[in-house]
Amino acid sequence: MVFESPPKQDRILEDDAPIRPESGDDDIVAEIKSAILSKIVLAAGKDVKRANIHDWYIAAALTLRDRIVYQWLQSDRAAQRRGDKRVYYLSLEFLIGRLLTDALTNMSLMGPFRTAVEDLGIDFDALRDAEPDAALGNGGLGRLAACFMESMATLAIPARGYGIRYEHGLFRQIVSDGWQEEFPEQWLLSGNPWEFERGDVVFDIQYGGHLDRIEQTDKPSRTLWIPDETIQAVAYDTPIVGWRGHHVNALRLWSARAVDPMRLDTFNNGDHLGAMSEMARAEAISKFLYPSDETPAGRALRLRQEYFFVSASLQDILDRHLHSDGDIRSLPSHAAIQLNDTHPSLAVPELMRLLVDKYQIGWDDAWDITTRTISYTNHTLLPEALETWQVELFERMLPRHLDIIYRINVDHLAAAEKHFGADARSRASVSLIDETGGRRVRMGHLAFVGSHRINGVSAMHSELMRETVFADLNSLYPGRITNKTNGITFRRWLHQCNPELTSLLQDACGAAVLDEPERLRMLEPLSDDRAFQQRFQAVKRANKIALAQTIASQLGIVVDPSALFDVQIKRIHEYKRQLLNAIEAVALYQAILANPEGNWTPRIKIFAGKAAASYRQAKLIIKFINDIGNVINNDPAIRDLLKVVFIPNYNVSAAEIIVPASDLSEQISTAGMEASGTGNMKLALNGAITIGTLDGANIEILEHVGEENIFIFGMKADEVVQRRAMGLDATGIISSSPMLTGVIEAIERGVFSPDDPSRFAPIAHALRFLDHYLVSADFEDYYRAQRAVDMKWHSPEWARSSILNVARMAWFSSDRTIREYAEDIWNIPLT
Ligand SMILES: *Cc1c(COP(=O)(O)O)cnc(C)c1O
User: Fold this and answer.
1) How many angstroms separate the CA atoms of 762 and 57, rounded?
2) For residue 831, is it within any domain?
3) Is the pTM of this model over 0.85?
4) 445 and 511 assigned to the same domain
5) Which residue's CA is the nearest one to ligand 1's atom 4?
6) Ligand 1 pocket residue status of 487, Cβ below 6 Å
7) Where on the chain is N6-(pyridoxal phosphate)lysine found, per UniProt (predicted)?
C-alpha cells in the first residue's frame, strides 16, 4: 500500500508528550502520528497546542481516509477492467452511525491508531466519541442498508449506495420530565471528514410543467415533457471499506441546490427575498430526513425527495454504463438496481422515461431492460404504511411519470384480464392505480410490476407477502417473490462493539472465526464447560458494568450489574409492544409489594427508542415508561429488585453500548407485524436470550438456536387474525386475569401519575376496549414466560443457553444475506 509521507513533525509535541512503549509496528505508529499532526496543522489550520478533541478526531479521520482512498481507487479500477456487474442500492435511508472505528477495524489499523493517538496524549475513546452519529435513517430499514453496504464491500461486490445527504438526520431525542422532545440533529455542523464533494457530478432534476404529444407519420407518437422547474443534485461520496480492507465501495449521497443561486436578474430588481425563497425551495429537498416511521407521508416534499434522488441516481448509473460499455441495451448485464422499500419506486417510470425519451429505445425493449435491471425489497405489509400518492399530486409534480405509469398499467391490466378473466376484484387489486376513495398510485405495485424479483425480509414475511397484500400479483407473476432473511454485519455488531467477547471467541474457535462465522459452532461443546462459562460471564459482566456507568452518569440511576439486564431497544411503536413490557413491570412491581419475601430475580428493565414526532400514543408510552420508573425506582419496599430505565436518544452508538451488556432481548411484537427485525439478531449474537413472539426473524432464530434456548410466548399470526375478527374488546380477558385487572386499575387510579391521574387514560382505554395489538390478550402468557426467565436465570442453564445463542447465530451475518441476493437476484457470481 502507498502511504503518503508527510514531513516528520514529532518535535511539535515538545517535552510534555507522554512516552510509552509502542505495541506492534513502530513504523506504522510513527507514520500515523506524524500524519495526524500534519492534518491538524495543514488541514485544520491550527496550532497543535490549540487543537481540541474535535480537531483531533477530524485529523485522525482524514489520516485514515488517505489510506482508504488508495484502496478505493484500486477497487474501482479493477472492477472497471474486469467489466464486473455492479450493484446500485437505492435507499432513502442509511443509518450509518460512526465510521471511524468501523473503518479502523476493517483496515486492520485499530491497534496502531490507538497507540498513535494515545502517544500524542489524546484519549482514544474521547476522540472516537467526538464523531457525530450519522443518523440518515429512522430505524431497521436504514440500518439494514448500512449493514448491506459493509457486507458488499467485504464480499468485494462492486456496489454503490445511493441516497440523500440530509443536512439534518433523525432528530435528537431529549427526555424532559418523562416526555420526548425533538431537537434538530446537526451532524454536518463541524464538517464531515469522510466525504468527497463531487463538484463535477451534478444532474438536473426537473418537476412540473406539461406534456406535448408529437404525432409522427409511420412511427409511434412521441411525448415531450416540458417541465417548469429545475433544480440540481450534487454528489458526495463516502468510502465504505470492507473487512480486511481489500475492497472499498462508495456511498453516494445527493445534495440539492438551486440552479442559479444568485438569480441576478431578480437581485437587480431588488427582489432579494424572491431569489432566496427559490433557493430555499430547492435546498429544502435535502434539508431533513422525513421524520416519520411507518406512517403515510402525505406530504409533497416527500415525493419531491423521492424523485430527486431516484432521478439523480439513474442519470448517474446510465452515464456510467454508457461511458464504460457504450451500449445502453446491455444495462441488465452490467447493473443491478435494488430498491430498498417503495421509496425509490419511481426508478421504474424514471428508467423508462430515460430509455424511451432520452435514448429513443422502443417501449417493449425499454420495458425488458427495466424489469431485468430492477428488483425490489418489501419491508412492511402494514396497510397504513403501504405508500400511495394521489394521482392529482403526481400529475402536477411528475406528469410524464404518471403518463408512463398509465402506459405500463395498460399492458399490465391486459395481462391481468387474460389471467383473471371475469374476476373484476382481482383485476382491480393488481392495478397500479387504487380507484377506491380518490385515485392513488400504488408504489408497492409499481415496484413489483417493474421488478424481476421481489423479496421479503424473513421467511414468515415473504410467506405473508404471497398470501396477503401481493397474493393476486403473485398469481399473475408467479415465482417473482423470493425470501432473503435480513442479517447484520458481525464486524460492527460483534467484533467492534464487543471486543472482549471477540477475543474470547478467537481463543475458543481460532482467529479464523473473524472471517468464518460458521466457526462459532465450535463453542457448542464449551457451553457446558464451567471454566468457559465463567470466562464468558466475566465478559458479559464487564460490559454490564460499562452500561451501568453510562446509566449512572446520564440518568443518575444506580443499577446493580449482577441483576438481569432486560432490554427492549427499538423504535417506539404500538405493534412492537413496549406497552406489554411496561405493564409486565407494573404487574411484577405489584407482585413484589404483595410478597416481599418471595424469591424474586433482581431485574433492570432497560428501554430505549424514539417515537415519530407526530405519534401521540407512542409518545405517551414513553412518558408511561418514565413515570412507572419514577415510582418503582424510588419505592424502598422494592429494595432494588426491579428498576425501570429509559435511555434517551437511541441511535447506533447507543446500541453499540447496550447490546453487549444485555441478558434478555425483548422481541415481543404482535405476531404478523414485524417484517424481520435485526435488533433481535444483534442481541442474540452477543449472548442475550430472546423472549419473543413467533414473528419475523424470531422464527428463524428459534430454528437456529433451538427451543430450549429461547422463550416463546403469545398468539401466532393466524390466531391474531382470528382474534381481531372477534372484535377488539378485551373486557373478558381482563376480568379473568386478576393481575391484569390490578395493573389497569392502578393506571386508572393515577398511581403512576399522581400529578395528573387521568394522564394515562388513553393507555388504559386501549388495554380495555381497543386491543388491536393484543397487549391484553397476550399479557398472561407473557407474564408466565417472564417467570420462566426468572427460573432459568438462577441456574447454570442460563450461561449454557447464552453461549449456544452465540454459537448458532452465524447464519444471521449480512454476508450470508448478500450472497443470497447476489446469486438469486443480482445474478452476480461470487468466488
Ligand atoms: C438495529 C437497529 C434498529 C432496528 O431494531 P429492531 O429491533 O429490529 O426494530 C433500529 N435502530 C437502531 C439504531 C439500530 O441499531
Assistant:
1) 47
2) no
3) yes
4) no
5) 140
6) no
7) 682
